[in-house]
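Q: Give me the 3D complex with fe (ii) ion.
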Amino acid sequence: MDSFIAAMEGIVEDLYGHVHRVSSLASAVGRQMALDADDVDRLATVGALHDIGKIHIDPTILAKPGPLEALELTRLRRHPEIGFAMTVDLFDRQVAEAILFHHERFDGDGYPFGLRAEEIPLLARVVLVADAFDAITSHRSYQPALSVDHAIGEITGHAGTQFDPDVVEAFLTVIDQHAPVTALPSAFPVAAAAR
Ligand SMILES: [Fe+2]
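A: Here is the predicted complex, encoded as structure tokens.
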């Protein structure tokens, strides 16, 4: 797994910080939801590897500031399927499937398949929230870092649409119980999530 993570160097901004934070938060939310130890371990793995497919996406698309053109977006949105193909023979099937479905939305408006609600594996629903929280609170080429409070507002506001409300509830408990994973000043009222 370390070599997979190393392969993302230069592809995912603040790679090791992002991997650590999403892994920690996803597994903490899993524990809060009383998932078994194997699933908590899987969440740590998926938290680290969900974007591994981006190593096969044009770096100029990944680094582009601002909105993407339609064709660029189509190309970027292949990364879950590429990540699935890269991991399915190496990890548990549940890990590979959570990578495949980590951009599906609870309301069916996600990608690549537009699955909705419980059609989306729970591990993928958990990673979506953890990834969104870290994307909002981290600096990215396409957006500045926003505050933890802003991220909590965004995620709560999209419970039941983008996010599984049960996962959001567990996420809020985790954030309440622990020191913030990251704390940055609020400045820009930009709606945000991971691409
Ligand atoms: Fe992703």
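A quick observation: The chain has one domain: 2-187.
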